[in-house]
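User: Before I run my own analysis I want an independent prediction to cross-check against. Here's the chain; please return only the structure tokens and, at the end, one sentence I can use as a sanity check.
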Amino acid sequence: MNRREFMLSAAAVATIAGTMSLGGRSSSARAESTAQLSPKAAEYDVTYFDAVPGSRSRDIAFNTDVSVWYCGQRDGTLTRLDPESGGLDPVPLGEGSAPHGVVLGPDNAFWITDGGQNAIVRLDPADKSISRLPLPGEFARANLNTGVFDRNGIYWFTGQNGVLGRVDPKTEKLDAWAAPGGRGPYGITVTPDNNVWYVSLAGNHLGVIDRETFEVTRFDPPTANAGPRRVWSDSNGILWISEWNSGDVSRFNPATAEWKNWKLPGEAPRCYSVYVDERNKVWTTDFGANAIVMFDPESEQFTSFPSTMPNANVRQMAGRPGEAWGGESGTDRLVRIRFPVIT
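Assistant: Structure tokens:
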């Protein structure tokens, strides 16, 4: 079967505060599980889905139906997963493709940062038609990373080799320019008040882009060489940032320019990605612990979901109501964590 489901035992989902060491493993398949769950662990249900072998399944996005689409960075595809059947439908993106990030646009098409083709690729899931917007020649090796749509329907993107850019889908006009501080632009997000923010991994800063002039105002994290990798806005416009080098998840308030940091649990955390769900709970991934880690800002507690396989390497998380998703790039799987929906 393409779909494999696991119910986590209390040992596999550890709710902790501070920097306790983690441990635990998944139980057997759901139908055979007899483990008693703790009240906290019982709120969550974890399911793994096989991706195409060798695809290096990573960043994901959701269509308007039940389907989940993921970037196959190694096989050059955007692949549709049907979570109900486990069925897979890969769509090749072109010769040399190496897709990194994907997001569903207001035009109901997927917009992809394709580092292999050095182009923004648009895929219409209805008919699987593909169009490409190559970057200007001066940015021939942009190492395209992540994209996001603002509230006006403009697409903004980053390139790790020191590039920022935007596309107006109505005109297909692509603008690209050198990022301040050179190499490093990685994650990008839009706040409810329509400000576009990005983080620079190598440049060690958070920046907000003026949507008219393209100028950037920088904010440096309090931790030296923190390595901010991904950024996500919560419903109040507060920014949450994963810090790869420090192992922290950090919070930045644009209204006050104040930072606050929390170290992920464990001896050597490596905080890669971040996503904020509709409850304003913060989901991160920790390469050091081989786990997805949820942080509750109200209680300041972490809940850890270790992978059932080694070297999961979840590089991005996203979600929809009641669900948090990630692509295990090291195992060629997708993982879904379900939680109670707010009503």
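Sanity check: The two ends are 33 Å apart (CA to CA).
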